[in-house]
Amino acid sequence: MRKQKRWNLVAIASVVMAVILALLAIARIDVTQVHTRDALRLSAAARALITDPHQLPPSGWSTLRGDLLSDAEARGDLQELEAAPHHVQVGVYANTTSELDLSVPSYAASGYVWLRWDQPLQQLLEASGASIDERFGLVNTLITDAPPELQPVGKEPERLEDGSYYQLFKHRGRYYLDQASFRHYPFMSVSLPVAIEADDVDGGLSYDQLRLEPDIRNSGMGLYARIIGWLNQGWSIAEYRHHYSSNFGLGGAESDYSLILFEISFGTSSWAAFWRLLLPLSVLMAMVLLVFKVRPDEQDARASIPVTVLLTLVFLQQTYRANLPDLPFLTFLDQVYVVAYVVTFVAFVLVLWIGRRYADMEALPDGESRDKLRTKLENLDNSWPLVVVAFGGAAISIAWMLIPAGT
């Protein structure tokens, strides 16, 4: 008996050492991500960041990109806004949103974009022989073989009474989305953006020369700007300062450009996510909780439950992961599955260990030693559900609280 215990300790120590070495090896070969120096900073221009502040998720996630300007930076940006020689008012109205694909991630959309600009910019366009739609484009488009990004409605710009120029455009295509709370999956929010920026060919439309101002009053979303299965959280539009880590060969400092970002936010239903993804997992964990309620003499039935649960866990996880991109981190649901894997593995090990102890007990003669072993095993059987609930609840709660705010 002592020899067997010694070999058991050696086996446990070997497994622990193997796990430690595996973790060290993975940490050593893991790839460190290099971040681009391109960045967006919210400008000091008028903006509508969300239609309903109460729709902001409790996680703190929002559509805001980059850091807010300090008071001094905001004052300086307003002075640059007034000093810029060219101003273009940009409005966006979303007609449809569809085909949200989180595995890319991308979505399809169509709608209207209108531009309203002043006489100095019109003179600049005429001098270069370009139309306004040749100098502006959608930054986050994905389809290269689609029709022109901005399709003019009408042949020429319209001259308004105040001397400014106006032209309406249609847009349709598939667009990349860069803002989603994947870490909170399945309780997540996504932002479907349309990013509009000037196509500068000679350095004359940089941030200090051209400022895009959002048309907050008239922008919005239409009847079909919906995604079935998602809850609409409102739309937003704002001007950002887009910093490129390049001067595009024009010489001088790195380039900054004014960018208009219009986006519609959607969130998942917490109840729907629970019934669809967490309820099956809860049922499986309930089976693991009750594994030791099976009669001790039915060892085969006890051992088969953790194995069956493990195979089902793998299948369920692969099913929901197929809808997500290959993320470099674990989502909240991934962490819940890690807890489920640990509990299932421990249950399987305990089934084997307790089975051996019951076999040893049968070999003991009737007396105090046999009664103590039986009481010990019965206490372990009875305490298992409480231990699992306490461990699982604490681990899942900690996993949720450790998710970085606003991600």
List the keywords.
Acetylcholine Binding Protein, Chain: A, 2 domains, Methane Monooxygenase Hydroxylase, Chain G, domain 1, elongated, 407 residues
Describe what this molecule looks like in 3D.
The chain starts with a helix and ends in a 6-residue tail after the last helix. It has two domains: 39-268, Neurotransmitter-gated ion-channel ligand-binding domain (Acetylcholine Binding Protein, Chain: A), CATH 2.70.170; 272-401, Methane Monooxygenase Hydroxylase, Chain G, domain 1, CATH 1.20.58. It is 39% helix and 24% strand. It has seven helices and 13 strands. A hairpin with an 8-residue loop joins strand 8 (179-180) and strand 9. The model has no long low-confidence stretch (mean pLDDT 85). The chain is elongated, with a radius of gyration of 30 Å. Strands 2, 3, 5, 6, 7, 10 and 11 form a seven-stranded mixed β-sheet that branches. Strands 1, 4, 8, 9, 12 and 13 form a six-stranded antiparallel β-sheet that branches. By secondary structure, it is an alpha+beta fold.
